[in-house]
Amino acid sequence: MAIKKSSAGKLAFTGISLILMLLPNSAFCATPEALDLSGHWIGFLALGLFATAYVLVVLEELLELRKSKPMMLAAALIWLAIALTYKSHGLSGLAETAIRHYVLDYSELFLFLIVSIAYINAMEERRVFDNLRAWLVNRGFSYRQLFWVTGLLAFFISAVSNNMTTAMLMCAVLLAVGKDNPRFVAISCVNTVVAANAGGAFCPFGDITTLMVWQKGMIEFWTFFNLFVPATINFLIPATIMHFAIPDARPAPILVKASTLRGAKRIVLLFLLTVLTAVGFQNSLQLPAAVGMMAGLTYLQLFGYFLHITHRDEPELDIDGVAGDNLPKAGDGGNGLRFDVFHHLARMEWDTLLFFYGVVLCVGGLNFIGYLQHLSEFLYGELGATPANILVGIVSAVVDNIPVMFAILAMTPDMSEGQWLLVTLTAGVGGSLLSVGSAAGVALMGQAKGVYTFMTHLKWAPAIMLGYLGSVGAHFLINGGLF
């Protein structure tokens, strides 16, 4: 359907185009292939838009403005400015090709993530995580034992689940058992954040940054597991130090009953089969891993259909997973609803996924303008790959590691496999240095409000930094042949 432009829109478009056409060509470092706008006002405007959007993202909770909104608006305005500039120089095709490339990059990651999140949501609805929580609470662990058990579980679960979900699951256990000991809960939350971030660093499924590196083909799937020992050291060093601050006592016994809903174990197995399918598509068939994940989504869809046609009522469970005698009967999915895959797709973290879209297009726009080329020359040319990649981890404690990693991938520096592994490690675990450095830390500050705080985490920053440096040193020692 044709869309008529308003008179005001035509005047605005014509006015901006005339301004751009009147600009002296010497302002651009033009080549037959592209324009370097990094020294032009268009470039400065793009930087300002991205910086403003990022400030609004940081102030999300204060302003109650979801982070996707400013980032998506900034992306649209940056590419509008780029498109008008290239149009004025008769190069519209170059801008179109570039933005299609970035949209394709995002699309592959988006399809991958929605399948992964759909499975996690399905397992949550089948009460897989509630059952695990109840098991931990009922075991009667001492405070120190619980500190280590939750840390180790966070480390390994986050290798296949996102670090925020994993951290929140462990935090629920800590709050249930340690409600009478805030000090234990606070220190254990720090440990959980470090463990969850470290666990996501050695597996492509553990973190968006590792996923991006794998899908870009910088590192083969199984090569990531060379980071297992460095990631383990990153977790163990601060955990060992914090161990001595945990009270040597045992909490009062708690009894919680829980049971999973029908099909829970089979959904876990289908998720593992989906992971293997994605790996097979990427490694053996050289097809995008997202295609394998979408094939895996059909496993869940077909199994969901089986649950639907064999539906039987089950008692609704209360918050602790105990069947309520006076509660109404419910279906397989609770609340009287049958299992429905699309219900789990609707429960996606759409704000995060759309924020990720904005980040990809903003950083892609800055790369197309020419800034990342200059930044790459400074970081990987003047500083060198090793100092630059170590610095990336420290920066990711303040700036979200997703735009940082996407910027590095957009730079495409010429690095060895060992250096790509190093930047994957540092970008993944660097966020543990501050509580605001990762989604896991931010989530736990809300979940354990007043107990786990920014200052609580900052108190243990020196121990976490020792773990960070230890993991980097271990990587050079163990994986030296990859450099």
UniProtKB/TrEMBL annotation:
UniProt record similarity statement: Belongs to the NhaD Na(+)/H(+) (TC 2.A.62) antiporter family.
Transmembrane segments: 39-59, 71-89, 101-120, 141-160, 221-246, 267-283, 352-370, 390-409, 421-448, 460-478
Compartments, as annotated in UniProt: Membrane
Keywords linked to the UniProt accession: Antiport, Ion transport, Membrane, Sodium, Sodium transport, Transmembrane, Transmembrane helix, Transport
Domain of life: Bacteria
Predominant cellular place of this UniProt entry's protein: membrane
Membrane topology: Multi-pass membrane protein
Keyword Hydrolase: no
RNA-binding among keywords: no
Protein name: Sodium:proton antiporter NhaD
